[in-house]
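If you are new to this repository, start here. Below is one unmodified record pulled from the training split, so you can see the exact layout before writing a loader.
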Amino acid sequence: MGDRFRAIRSDHGLVTAELAVSLPAVVGILLISLTILSSQVQAAQLQQFAAVAAHSLARSESERDVKSWVRNRAPRATLSISDESGVLCATVRQSLQFVFALDAIAVSETACAWVGRKVMGV
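And here is the target side for that same chain:
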């Protein structure tokens, strides 16, 4: 009879139950953290692509070559260029991509270069 009550009061299996409850929460937090980190890395890359594109166009490189360069490094990205009052801006836009592309969440980065004149072809 004493063994029966000892088995009821036993702590065996409690760790398994706690792990089964907490593991999904830990995995969810990890997944959200990785998604945020991935979006920040993608934004930093797009910012660098936009800066290189703006400076290349300011040096009078062809728009076609610059768009080709961006497309080679970020195949799903789009490059738009604007030129107002001697300030040339390049905007690179891409949908967030983690495990699959999230078209609803787009990352867009802009970089500008002052050229002091209208850039031909833009």
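Two things worth knowing about this chain: The chain has a mean pLDDT of 83. The longest strand covers residues 101-114.
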